[in-house]
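Lab notebook: predicted structure, single chain.

Context: the supervisor wants predicted structures on file for every construct in the current expression panel, including those that have not yet been purified. This is the next one on the list. No modifications to the sequence; it matches the entry in the shared construct table.
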Amino acid sequence: MTDEALAHILLVEDEAALAENYALALQRAGYQVEHVATSEAALARAAARLPDVAIIDVGLGRHADAGFELCRAFRARSDRLPILFLTARDDELDIISGLRLGADDYLTKDISLAQLVARVHTVLRRVQALLTTSDACAERVVGALRLELPRLIALWHETVVPLTVTEFHLVAALAESPGQVLSRAQLMRAAGVVLDDQTITAHVKRIRRKFEALDGGFEAIATVYGLGYRWMPPANEPG
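Prediction complete. Output recorded below exactly as produced.
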């Protein structure tokens, strides 16, 4: 990961006028932007050089769900590549589908250019913060969970859990204070993300499924209905 000001963004958008506006706003903010209009072109560019951030439209050309398939392909290549959807499709099912595929954020095209830049800045800042973590606090262990902060790696019983950047931050925020209930708003602040409640809920469900795939008895993330979530402390520690 390079310095944020030099970060390389791959913008996948088939509407030329919109792409030009997005690219100009991001370039003015100091980012390098490469624009492609198809998923095939995006995959070819990523094969040559994986970007620091991918911004993807859902519908590309005549392919209504090409962006979803592209997200799946990108996520298969890297668990840590920040992926943001930027699309006109605001249906709840589309949002949930995008997050389930591993996107870090789902933005609709009524977002302002300033907000778009801010969301990109946020996800890059989170990556950079972990990459520059001092050795003194480079690792966090809570029971069977071990977080290697500089490498953005989470291990459960010493097996790597394939978390995205956003998912890693949410787990790290919960594990920071085992037993403490964090509301969705507190979780967003602690993890340094700007998401709505629905998005947080979808991320937590996806995180649980990833841990459960490794451990069918996983119960470390508890839902406290009406309040939020908490990371359950190990059995031999007070809650």
